[in-house]
């Protein structure tokens, strides 16, 4: 799954996004790129669960 996160602007944001996803699925593969403001996630968790976790962490996401 791929998300666009408008307010992910730095490496610290990318780490926070990664931690939020790993909180739902510790085995998830996460590639967070603050330059393009996109996150690619490989996970067995649902898109809704990942999206909720990102929003709860302060990084609302839209489909990319």
Structure notes:
- A hairpin with a 4-residue loop joins β2 (29-33) and β3 (38-42).
- This protein has a four-stranded antiparallel β-sheet with strand order 2-3-1-4, with helices on one face.
- 38% of the residues lie in helices and 23% in strands.
- It is of the alpha+beta class and 64 residues long.
- The N and C termini lie close together (8 Å).
- The chain has helices at 11-24, 47-56, and strands spanning 2-4, 29-33, 38-42, 62-63.
- α1 (11-24) packs across α2 (47-56).
Number of helices: 2
- Please estimate the helix content: 25-40%
| Portion in beta strands | 15-25%
How are strands sequenced across the largest beta sheet? 2-3-1-4
Mean pLDDT: 96
CA distance, first residue to last residue: 8 Å
Q: Strand-and-helix sequence, N→C? A: EHEEHE
Global outline? globular
Largest beta sheet, briefly? 4 strands, antiparallel
Q: How many beta-strand runs? A: 4
Rg from alpha-carbon coordinates: 10 Å
Low-confidence stretches: none
- Class from secondary-structure proportions: alpha+beta
């Amino acid at each position: 799954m791929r998300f666009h996160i408008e307010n992910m602007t730095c490496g610290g944001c990318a780490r926070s996004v990664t931690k939020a996803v790993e909180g739902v699925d510790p085995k998830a593969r996460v590639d967070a790129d603050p330059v393009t403001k996109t996150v690619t996630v490989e996970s067995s968790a649902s898109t809704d669960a990942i999206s909720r976790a990102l929003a709860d962490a302060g990084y609302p996401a839209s489909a990319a």
